[in-house]
Task: structure prediction
Amino acid sequence: MAKDIYHNLVKAALIADGWTITHDPLRIFQEEEKDPVEIDLGAEKIIAAEKENRRIAVEVKSFLNPSLIYDFHQALGQYINYRLAMELENEARVLYLAVSSDVFKDFQEKKLIRASLATNDVKLLLFDEETENIAQWIE
Result:
């Protein structure tokens, strides 16, 4: 599977934030060798000594096509299917959709996208393209 153009940026930002990359990519349904589900990154981080490990999966999207809505439909479909695949495989990770802060600003201008994100409980990891850092986590 081809990596998104921001894949390495998000991976480096996660590492800089103290995350350990455990899978690149995270493969789900590996027994279906011809067509496994591949989520861009799997990572984990110790939050505090008194808490258990926090484990996440991250799907990175660039939204480079002329139609934001078209790209969003594809990203949302993948996100929903990846989350379901993780549940079916008892993969105890929280799934995040990684998008740039600029794309998120565009999301905020679209009523349909805002409603879809809320209805489908999409968790977002926003990254800054210029600083190459994580800008915000949206639960």
